[in-house]
Amino acid sequence: MFTTPLVIATLMAATLGAVIGFLINHGAMRPVITGLRDELADAVWQLTHDPLTGLHNRTGLRAIHTANAASAEPQHIVAMLIDLDLFKEVNDAHSHNAGDDLLKATADRIRELAELYGGHAARLSGDEFAAIMPLGRTRLAGMAEHFTDVIAEPVEVRADNGPVTVTITASLGVAIATSTDLLDGVALHHADMAMYHAKQQGGNRHVLHQPGMTMPSHRPRRGPRLRDRRRSQNGNGA
């Protein structure tokens, strides 16, 4: 069994919970208890969320997926991987502040859409996002088009010379999995393959993963920004 940051946080929570219970039973000061609870909540939040956008990070999304799989009968879910098209050009043209504004605005839109369909969203790294949602009776094409349309709406960001309105599109990979499938190894892996096909076809579209699908022979280059990689190496990234 691997010891992940989330497992460590869970063990910390259990230990501190016992300590807090002891203090309560022995009439300790409430400010001490409140402080411990706040510090624990903040530590868990930092482990499971992206600091820039407030979305879940990969660890947080894994925790949600694992909890859902354990708490209900197996069901079909939709895994969606979202990669912004030409984000680097917007970031380079209008400054890092503008790029951060765009990421935060896009994250808010993806969060609202994922919640609309009963699911959860995450920022995985750089300009790459993910969402997992129950399949239910949702029409996949309609859901994916809803995401691409909303993401492509104009956003006002802070440029070096003042506010500027920009438009960004996204390539979406969509996969159907079961709630008991591995998140990274199956659900997001299949969605990632489909996303690369959407990217190769010009972006601003979605592709549904099909059985037997493989990665395109020539993948468009993409990846996190340099400072996102540095944050990750320092332990502060998504």
Automatic annotation (TrEMBL):
Biased composition of type Basic residues is found at 218-232
Alphabetized UniProt keyword annotations: Membrane, Transmembrane, Transmembrane helix
Where are its TM segments located?
6-24
**Annotated segments matching region Disordered:** 202-238
Where does the record place the GGDEF domain? 75-211
Statement: the UniProt record of this protein carries the keyword Transmembrane helix: yes
The reply to whether Methyltransferase figures as a keyword in the UniProt entry is no
Protein name in UniProt: Diguanylate cyclase (GGDEF) domain-containing protein
Q: Name the source organism.
A: Actinoplanes regularis
